[in-house]
Write a structure and sequence with these properties.
The chain is α/β, with parallel strands linked by helices. It has twelve helices and 18 strands. The protein has helices spanning 73-78, 82-98, 113-122, 153-167, 194-206, 218-227, 248-256, 277-280, 283-296, 317-323, 331-337, 340-345, and strands spanning 2-6, 9-10, 19-20, 22-27, 30-36, 45-48, 52-56, 58-63, 101-106, 129-132, 172-175, 211-215, 231-234, 260-262, 299-301, 363-367, 380-385, 388-389. The longest helix has 17 residues, at 82-98. The two termini are 29 Å apart. The structure holds zinc ion. Zinc ion (ZN) binds at residues 62, 64, 107-108, 305.
Amino acid sequence: MNTVLRAAWLFDGTADTLMPDPTVILDGGTITAVGTALPVPAGATVVDLGAATLLPGLVDTHVHLAFDASADPVGNLAARDDAEALTAMTAAARHAARGGVTTVRDLGDRGYGSLLVRAAAAADPTLPTVVAAGPPITSPGGHCHYLGGAVDGVDGVRAAVRERADRGVDVIKIMASGGNLTPGSLPEVSQFGPDELRAAVTEAHRLGLPVTAHAHGTQAVADALAAGVDGLEHVSFMSADGVDPIPDAVLAAIVGQRVAIGMTVGFVPVPGFAPPPAVLSRLPLMIAGLGRMHAAGAVMTAGTDAGIGPVKPHDVLRSAVAQLAQIGMTPAAALRAATSVAATTCGLGRRKGRLVPGYDADVLAVDGDPLRDPGALHRIRAVYVRGVALDGAALSR
Ligand SMILES: [Zn+2]
């Protein structure tokens, strides 16, 4: 069953420029050919998208399907039993796909619900591909403890990693520092010491799993790097009263170890909702820090934290692409951060994030040139999830 997509332009996930007059041939859920003026296979369905630009489906490296992007995502989740939570998570995943986000990495659920959405997606092409961490590993009373992942000490951390591996997670998420979403938790304070972080990474790597650490404070970032994590989330360098300058040795480790930095960028304007004051006042210095990491050559992905509030709906990633100009990214680099680089960060660099033969047929078509006008990403013409077109009437616009 071949589908032939024609459009005016194509971003392949890696290049600095667009390819003109592309033809993309899909065979079921796989891209089989990309080029100009390719012959149409017999019996193929030809879809002419006119002046549109084709891009790889977007990849968000940091979402929470269990949080409903309301003003009280934690309270609403607490009020849902597991069946209700699964229904809401599935709706959140579908919302992401309708906004062009065809792969999501869930970095914190309750009760391993994201694994159920991952399984459902295998049979439901309206759902994005899900990469799942299960409940984040945290300390007793620590950041997001209410998701059920609190453990104590080196042995507790090791057992938690083993439990997640047994459950079949794709990645381990550990809260190296406190966070903003948990009362009583301080972002600048470490939740685990070097021994516990090293135990988490050693055990996870032994079991073939990558580790990404939520880390705001400088000490937590440094300890996670020393432990050998594969990714870091937020990396804000928040201190009690401001933002620390990034120590040179920490920056060198981030770049040298090729650690993927999830930037937590991307928001939609919602009247009455602003970031918490503690974040807002620090924002210029946090953005400057991200810019410094990018300029130094760090691996950067948007990693939006979709779901944690009204400004972060589950399809927020396309808003993040334009906002990455603030840290000095070119439009092409920003698109790479939301496609090929993000796919590699999710362990899917050979299947997702690029429009090349052999890759999954996840395709986003938008009106306009997203390299000249990032607003084009909001003018969605079509979304293909593993080769299946989403209902045009349901697409986010
Ligand atoms: Zn998060």
